[in-house]
């Protein structure tokens, strides 16, 4: 029987699901489903929303899929499918839950056919598949959104680095380079009425506090990269996630600050969007 993969990307505020074509490694037409998620809701509410997206995508394809692959933020027991997310301002209610068993039951698959992959790793795998980045022997991938994900591609292998949890300033990198970090900084300047980075970017021309916040992001990101680029020595860096959509407001300054330290690694903005994590997770089935 031909393998058909139902793939999903779980973010801090959404889930996206789709069926992936086994030959073209592309999303099957009309199967892409996206739902907003309240990451602070009860476990039953979150799981119901997640599984509804999976079921809708599978039903849109008109057939039962043979496998389920899920891009999931950490900390998470990826082998056993158990959520270990705690103290991350999201999905606290799911701590200790066996998500694999719930998904397997709802999409009617044996648990052995349900697999999970770190979201940063899935993102980078998908970008490698969908672009010419395979020409680069070493690529550092960053996903900047609700949290900060990091992964490294080295000669055909992608690994999660978990640098978002590395020491940075007075905490960890994710405390600063994330939606949470930016909004906290914006509010510390006296800003109000903004709940996401998209809105922050939209008011930047008339809001000095928003402009200063994006400039601070450039400083933080450059300092973070200066710490790790020297050790990792990638041939390229690729940035994705919702914050990367506002790249024109911070990336030029990041590049300038790195160049001042003679760091000339090219930084690319992700081209695949949310499809990257879907394709990357699905690629796990045939790896």
From TrEMBL:
<protein>
    <submittedName>
        <fullName>ROK family protein</fullName>
    </submittedName>
</protein>
<dbReference type="InterPro" id="IPR000600">
    <property type="entry name" value="ROK"/>
</dbReference>
<dbReference type="InterPro" id="IPR043129">
    <property type="entry name" value="ATPase_NBD"/>
</dbReference>
<dbReference type="Pfam" id="PF00480">
    <property type="entry name" value="ROK"/>
</dbReference>
<comment type="similarity">
    <text>Belongs to the ROK (NagC/XylR) family.</text>
</comment>
